[in-house]
Here is the input.
Amino acid sequence: MSQSIRNGLSTVPELDDVQFTRWQGLLEERTGMYMPIQRRSFLQTSLGLRMLELGLRDYSEYFQQVTQGPSGAIEWSTLVDRLTVQETRFFRDPDALSFVEEFIRGITSSLIEHDESLEIWSVGCASGEEPYTLAMIAEQMLGSLGMSYSVTGTDISTIVLRKARSGRYPLRALERIPIKFHSWAVQPLSSQQLEVSSKIRKRCCFSQVNVLNLKNSPLQSQHIIFCQNVLIYFRRWRRREILDALAQRLAPGGLLVLGLGEMVDWKHPLLEPVHSGQVTAFVRKQSTSSGESTRR
Ligand SMILES: C[S@@+](CC[C@H](N)C(=O)[O-])C[C@H]1O[C@@H](n2cnc3c(N)ncnc32)[C@H](O)[C@@H]1O
Here is the structure.
């Protein structure tokens, strides 16, 4: 049984079994995130601290507040921001990014031939470091050729998307960005902050998309879908459903990149797995077995 937690002079009320199950269900139904019993104290602290801010002492009362009407929707977005894991960083997965670089190199001539812009989607982009990283790589490879590209970052949390849109990060983030990008992809704003350059920012857009509702997303025919460290919080059946929907949103020949080891046992008739120990990725076949184009 979890204990009440003291925060300053106030005490966070205890989340009993009934309340835990109720909140766990709401979170999974709305975000897909499964909160195991081992994370009960995290849930209790996060809910309890928010309730203290609102002057509430009762989990049922807060549940009602969050699930009712337009004000409930606003409060829900604050809560989602507190309950989701938003850890991210620039150039987080060097092996996957090298693979993306190779992939872009491989499709550049086809993009030029068809006069196409490279479309990249970062799913569950958190505060934007991942989409900006992908844009820096695309700019480095395509900018000098005068080719167009765009990167869309999506996330469920509106609060984290606001941070992403600002393009501003603590100066220490520079340590994560390879030196070759420093002179043109970012600039220091102050002794505390850096800003992603306007050249990169103007190629990136951010939008709220819940991966449970991908059918409502207008994103289609993506050349690269990057979805790392998002599905690990979901149950396996739900991960499969989301990946099936992402597969449909790849352009023929397009690349889906997951975090290493995420969903190695998943298969999709439109996709070929990439055989590499360093990345977990899939490429969409160019056409169906009947020879018909798979582009939707
Ligand atoms: C750990 S971060 C991953 C960030 C980035 N992809 C990376 O690997 O560095 C997980 C992100 O997934 C988002 N997320 C969680 N549930 C989601 C959902 N149902 N739809 C869209 N995004 C979701 C969270 O808000 C969070 O920003």
Notes: Residues 31-33, 84-88, 92, 124-126, 130, 155-157, 160, 210-212, 228-230 surround S-adenosylmethionine (CB under 6 Å). The chain has two domains: 5-83, 94-284.
